[in-house]
Amino acid sequence: MNLKEFAGRLGLSQTTVSRALSGYPEVKKATRERVLKAAAELGYRPNTSALGLATGRVGTIGIVFRGGGDFGPHTSEFMGGLGSRLQQADVDILLSTVDSREAELATYRRLAASKRVDAVILHSPAVDDPRIALLTDLRLPFVLHGRTETAGNFAFLDIDNYGAIRQATDLLTALGHRRIALVNGHRGYTFTEHRQDGYAAALGARGIGIDPNLLGNGDFTDEMGFRLMQGFLAQENRPTAVLAGSMMSALGAMRAIRSAGMTVGEHISLIAHDDVFPYLSPENLIPTLTTTRSSIRAAGTRIAEMVLDLLQGTPAADLNEVWPVELVMRNSTAPPAG
Amino acid sequence: MNLKEFAGRLGLSQTTVSRALSGYPEVKKATRERVLKAAAELGYRPNTSALGLATGRVGTIGIVFRGGGDFGPHTSEFMGGLGSRLQQADVDILLSTVDSREAELATYRRLAASKRVDAVILHSPAVDDPRIALLTDLRLPFVLHGRTETAGNFAFLDIDNYGAIRQATDLLTALGHRRIALVNGHRGYTFTEHRQDGYAAALGARGIGIDPNLLGNGDFTDEMGFRLMQGFLAQENRPTAVLAGSMMSALGAMRAIRSAGMTVGEHISLIAHDDVFPYLSPENLIPTLTTTRSSIRAAGTRIAEMVLDLLQGTPAADLNEVWPVELVMRNSTAPPAG
DNA sequence: CTGAAAGCGCTTACAG
DNA sequence: CTGAAAGCGCTTACAG
Question: DSSP string spanning B204-215?
Fold first, then answer.
């Protein structure tokens, strides 16, 4: 059923019905109520394409993922938060999958040219990220999950990765550890660099140099945590503590430690970064895990609000947030053994 | 830039340009090539809303998730497969998040009434699922991931959950196990029931009765696997083997077994269903895990093809597939301990 | 407070 | 092989 038919049934003009539905003030209260009631009863909804053509707004926010690796548990949590908040505003998410960085850029061009979305969410920023310039150029509004050094003012929400790892490393050095391994993300991403900076600063404060053999980079997966940890343990001068970039990496690291016949929280201390997965709690591991904690789902929710604000006209420069990260001590951290 | 401007630059009518872009045969080859080249150079793309209005097709497939629980690692893998295939056809995914079953039904009504999507993907079907009737009624094309007993012919892709668990249970009984626990999904879902049926059939074939105390239902999470397994182990007459519904449940079950001072593949045999997570391989666990294996990502890819076929006019009745599940023996299964 | 009509940017029968 | 024009279903200045 279209507007014409719907208005016809009510004996009103399309104009009045449209205004009643959009909550314009000029419509008599009784008329509006009648229209709203009928719309609910008959299930009338404006055609999205027509609405998009007429207003230039389509009620959709885009997000692009790289097909394979990107689509992990972190993404799920983030999308859960993002989606549930957007849904309250009747905004949907348009999800595009791409195979490469070039394809990602091409997708933003496509989305902008075809006016398929009102804004996009950017994620996993690199220190120097070409997407910022592209989107600015395309005049496609966006909110960045993370930060970048790229100039320009734009909306973003990041967590304090530097502070998180700085705190965690400080705890370990305070306990007496001097050989601390870091299971980090891929080089070049802002969060990876910030974490390494926090690590370096904490070690520097204790006069401990950085041993490149204790630095590992890779996906935040069980598999990669296992492999990197095995590598650390195979070294002559093995670490007495590890910082794991995610709960997944931590699971892998714990397996590697156990298979080497050692015990977490006794022979090796472990601190993990916890994005708060409802199905994988550090409280439930054995031993319970000391973590740096920040909910990625909450970040998704907040970013949804930020993008809605942006579309309402809030200046991007007013939509910048950096969230602190909490260090939660549990049983996986102890002074170095003997 | 819109069609009018773009056509103007080329000195052609909108009609001809539109036809060239859509690959209509009536356009002279030289003209078409000139148009295509210019479109690529100038980045011209038809406005999606206008295109949707004119053709009734919007190039978008919808999928609805329940905000909290639905959005787990299984979803990620599925979406990865779905998205990468749809992207090749320049089709995007519209993702809606809801809080309840009622809200999900309301969302399909909204999507249909506002013509926001060309089709939807349905997932997690219940044995008797009201969504089938609703979508049929709304004439919104759909492909179901899973099966249901509901009448009507519609497109679906499911895996043979019955056969998977039947095989797995047969292996355990053949090894001599008689007390076998089942960590299953929530009751009412088709896959849960099919799995339980396969389990019951295998036990029945050996004359073993079903002990309700060995049946557990819940989310496929580490947490739930841990809790259910703890419950099984706390029983007087504890099981000697367990079937875990997912790799996540298996991780939790393994932790529970270890914390009870027992060893998987020695004191307790374990078979997990593996949806093939790239970051969590049964080969890498200790011991390596015997699994029933079926890639949920591959299912997503295939469902993408099915929905594209459906929109091309393939009858839904021709789009029904049930995939076999492979049993892969590794080291977590052994005869019951003395 | 309400309505007739132009316009958003396409596609596609119809005419040539 | 190409084009002028109607039509898809809305919103919104403009007029009353």
Answer: HHTTPPP-GGGE
Encode pLDDT of A34-65 as tens digits. Answer: 999 999 999 999 999 999 999 999 999 999 98
Q: Is the CB of A48 under 7 A from strand D?
A: no
Same domain, A88 and A185: no
Together in a domain, B33 and B11: yes
Tokens of A39: 């719309």
Query: Do A290 and A301 share a domain, yes or no?
Result: no
**pTM for the model:** 0.89
Restricting to B residues 41-80, those with a Cβ less than 8 Å away from any Cβ of A are 43-53, 58, 60, 65, 67-69, 71-73, 75-77, 79-80
> Residue B23 sits in a domain of what CATH number?
1.10.260.40
In this structure, are residues A62 and A120 in contact, taking their beta carbons and an 8 Å threshold? yes
Q: Tell whether B312 is covered by a domain.
A: yes
Å separating the CA of residue B16 from the C1' of nucleotide C6: 25
Sheet holding A119-123, edge to edge: A320-323, A155-159, A142-145, A119-123, A60-66, A92-98, B92-98, B60-66, B119-123, B142-145, B155-159, B320-323
Are A85 and A104 part of one and the same domain? yes
Q: Is residue B334 part of a domain?
A: no
Name residues whose C-beta falls within 8 Å of residue A33's C-beta, 6 or more positions apart in sequence. Answer: none
Are B115 and B125 contained in the same domain?
A: yes
Q: Which nucleotide, over all strands, has the C1' atom closest to the CA of B26?
A: D1
* Residue-number span of the structural domain to which B105 is assigned: 60-159+297-323
Residue B151 pLDDT > 80: no
pLDDT category, B68, cuts 50, 70, 90?
Answer: low
User: CA-to-C1' distance for A106 and D1, Å?
Assistant: 33
Chain A residue numbers touching B94 (CB-CB < 8 A): 60, 92-95
Q: Where are the alpha helices (DSSP H) in A44-116?
A: 48-55, 73-88, 101-113
